[in-house]
Amino acid sequence: MIPWVAKYRPKTLDEVENQEDVKDQLRSWIEDWLKGSSEAKGVLLYGPPGTGKTTLALALANSYNLELVETNASDTRNLTSLRNIVERASITGSLFGSRGKLIFLDEVDGVQPKQDYGAIPAILEILKSSKYPIIMAANDPWSPNLRDLRSAVRMIEVKKLGKVPMRRLLKKICNSEKIKCEDAAIDEIVEASDGDARYAINFLEAVAEGYNMVSKSLVEELVKRKERELDPFETVRSVFWARYGWQAKLAVSNSQVDYELLMRWISENIPIQYEELNDVWRAYDALSRASIFLTRAKLSSWDMLSYTFDLMGPGVALAEVGKKSQTWKAKWKKYQFPTMVQQMYKSKSSRQVRDSLIQKLGFHLHSSTKKIFNDVYPFFTLMASADQSDFAKSLELSQEEVNYLSSNKGETHERPSGREDGENKSSTTRNTRTRSRRSRS
Ligand SMILES: Nc1ncnc2c1ncn2[C@@H]1O[C@H](COP(=O)(O)OP(=O)(O)OP(=O)(O)O)[C@@H](O)[C@H]1O
């Protein structure tokens, strides 16, 4: 059975819902190409997931009877074979005499500067030498890694699909499938999809397939369930409150939270939920075994994941022996974030205060971060605890930074990142220039 996203994917540009401006730009670009007068070597379609970038590339190829050669931009092996195709094209000459090609490079923003080293230069080279039009897609095209690429192509933004065309799209599918869909249910899916057509169509298919009809109450229930799967508090609660093993297993296997992180969540909250020492012991025993199976799953076979779920879900849930008799009020506990997540957050914000503090001191003293950190910083911690008001004002410190200094922090932290010498000199120069310009005006 073909999934609906593929079954109902528009074949030509005229069938693509909305996106009129994008379609016009693509038509004029490809027609210039076919006439041999195109200025832009390639096009980069960018926009959120599920908005139709791949669909538009495919529809463009079909509309102009071109063969679509599709590859993922981070697959460097495919880029090499693409280079061969392009090279061969330059030798064989007339390309549009027979059936021409349209090259489609998906996920150019997925190219990693380190792992996929050479991919962007390869794309730039293909762009330069290609006799075929090249169309690319990205969700986020603004990374510094793509700077050269951005200036080499025409950028076309693909916006989220609006509510009216999305509704039209879903209704068309309901009619073709001869399924009874309540209007309010369609509206609910449109709302939940937030302009992502793939999400909306998949959602519609899941409801229709499971229940043979699409009602508002069903959609609401499924939206809630999806939200719960994303929420670690809900997963933890479902595990601890499960009366039967299968309920706990379903909660962990459906959860969208990363498995390791989920283990930390469960681990943190075991002693909060369970009061009997033996229950706590059994729960931790199950969880530690789950951790072993997770490592095995990663190292050898993902089949082991099922044991991880068994231990992390039912293993922890059934560790509490007297659970069945408890009311929900007795079970209700206030869960907490894993300590590690809290610490990471705290140390990150604390590092940010320290770094901005050192930048400011460097600016006022015309020194590098290294010099400030090694030689000057301890004196400032003393000065801050002695006199705060004038000191803070003259250095333009925020209250957060003053508190940080006067609590004598700093020695306990690692040295801040950044270039050691000259870093603050250049920022000082920049700041001084801004200041003098300001004072002139
Ligand atoms: N404007 C549209 N008209 C009709 N169907 C659409 C439209 N946009 C998207 N779709 C449907 O949504 C599905 C997903 O779209 P597509 O794969 O083109 O999105 P994308 O922008 O390439 O996503 P990603 O960035 O995740 O790769 C398509 O298979 C198609 O069925």
TrEMBL record:
InterPro entries: AAA+_ATPase, ATPase_AAA_core, P-loop_NTPase, Rep_factor-C_lsu, RFC_lid. Residues 432-441 have a biased composition (Basic residues). Residues 39-161 form the AAA+ ATPase domain. Pfam families: AAA, RCF1-5-like_lid. ATP binds at G47, P48, P49, G50, T51, G52, K53, T54. One of its GO terms (molecular function) is ATP hydrolysis activity. Part of the RFC clamp loader complex which loads the PCNA sliding clamp onto DNA. Belongs to the activator 1 small subunits family. RfcL subfamily. This is Replication factor C large subunit. It comes from Metallosphaera tengchongensis. The gene is rfcL.
